[in-house]
TrEMBL record:
<protein>
    <submittedName>
        <fullName>2-nitropropane dioxygenase</fullName>
    </submittedName>
</protein>
<keyword id="KW-0223">Dioxygenase</keyword>
<dbReference type="InterPro" id="IPR013785">
    <property type="entry name" value="Aldolase_TIM"/>
</dbReference>
<keyword id="KW-0560">Oxidoreductase</keyword>
<keyword id="KW-0285">Flavoprotein</keyword>
<dbReference type="GO" id="GO:0018580">
    <property type="term" value="F:nitronate monooxygenase activity"/>
</dbReference>
<dbReference type="InterPro" id="IPR004136">
    <property type="entry name" value="NMO"/>
</dbReference>
<keyword id="KW-0288">FMN</keyword>
<dbReference type="GO" id="GO:0051213">
    <property type="term" value="F:dioxygenase activity"/>
</dbReference>
<dbReference type="Pfam" id="PF03060">
    <property type="entry name" value="NMO"/>
</dbReference>
Length: 349
């Protein structure tokens, strides 16, 4: 028992900077996933000791206000709101968060301006940002960002080109002024522990929570996660550098295969002079319009966008959020205990 208590105390000490910053019992964030990270999942994560984050996405200010108020009715614990910096009504969305005393604002989907960062901080909220590279992380800290999330290419949804393993080695030793949370491909608590020991403040999980009982995602969506393997979560492929495709990781299905033929058809029409370059680019981009909602809400797992990280291979059953979080904590504690046993084991004769 004392070994377990000592391990828990060690874990508490390792992620104390993250817990202090978030105001949560555990430094475990929920990734902001469009259509998934809404009131039910966010409140469940925060109530279980983690830190839920609402995905604002393309919401209008009035819709975001509704979601914040509904979430606050379900939890008295801190939670955050993820805002896309390119949203045309970003200032109004920030004002909604501040008016409703949201404790943390996460600025994503682009580089936030110093003015936006100051607006959040002056309004009394903590502000976080994403850093896919060391140089950008340092720049954000200079601009006033109070915490960073570094997300590897193993993550689901829109991803960068570098794995979390490499990002952590590049960034964690070199940015120590603010808490840095790791994300991308995380499915177990002992994995988070390894990054805590490198200097991380905590970990962010998306895929495992998307498949939880409290997630409003369609049952067919969750079942696809339960059946999926790590290798099934693939990045979208770009056929022609003249027509950029934003890299997105999701489960391979009929839509991902059709996207390849769609790109090829559009590029061939452009080559023949049947369509202008700008129109061709729009046709390629519009292929996925509404596809995430089709998968998450309507349950069309073949023709929708099945955004998922490579940790999907570790989703073996649909469990309550509290069970998931408790398991993550237990796995970290058990890893610490195993290490102590190895260190103090008697040498073989």
């Amino acid at each position: 028992m004392s070994g377990t208590m000592n391990a828990r105390e060690t874990l508490d000490q390792l992620w104390k900077p993250g817990c202090d910053f978030l105001g949560s019992r555990y430094a475990l964030l929920g990734g902001a996933m469009s259509w998934v990270s809404e009131r039910n999942l966010v409140s469940a994560i925060s109530n279980a000791g983690g830190f839920g984050v609402i995905a604002c996405g393309a919401m209008e200010p009035e819709r975001l206000e509704e979601e914040i108020v509904a979430t606050q009715a379900l939890t008295d614990k801190p939670f955050g709101v993820n805002l896309i910096t390119m949203h045309p009504k970003l200032d109004a969305l920030v004002d909604v968060c501040l008016a409703h005393k949201v404790t943390h604002v996460v600025l994503a989907g682009g580089v936030p301006t110093g003015a936006t960062i100051r607006r959040v901080r002056d309004g009394g909220a903590r502000v976080m940002g994403f850093a896919p590279a060391l140089a950008l992380g340092k720049r954000l800290v200079k601009l006033g960002i109070e915490a960073l999330v570094i997300e590897g290419s193993e993550a689901g949804g829109h991803v960068g080109p570098v794995s979390l393993n490499v990002l952590a080695q590049e960034i964690l030793p070199n940015i120590t002024e603010v808490p840095v949370f790791v994300a991308g491909g995380l499915g177990r608590g002992d994995a988070v522990l390894s990054y805590l020991e490198q200097g991380a403040a905590g970990g962010q999980f998306g895929t495992v929570f998307a498949a939880s009982k409290e997630s409003i995602a369609h049952e067919r969506f969750k079942e696809a996660f339960r059946r999926g393997n790590a290798r099934d979560a693939v990045m979208s492929v770009q056929l022609d550098e003249r027509f950029p495709v934003i890299p997105v990781r999701g489960l391979s299905n009929a839509a991902t295969r059709h996207f390849m033929t769609h790109q090829a058809d559009v590029i061939e029409r452009f080559r023949k002079g049947e369509i202008e370059r700008e129109a061709a680019q729009l046709e390629i981009e519009h292929f996925w319009a509404g596809a995430l909602r089709r998968a998450v809400i309507e349950g069309d797992v073949e023709n929708g966008s099945m955004m998922a990280g490579q940790s999907v291979g570790m989703v073996k059953e649909i469990r309550p959020v509290a069970d998931i979080i408790n398991t993550l904590v237990d796995q970290a504690v058990e890893a610490l205990q195993r290490r102590e046993r190895r260190i103090h084991a008697e040498p073989a004769q």
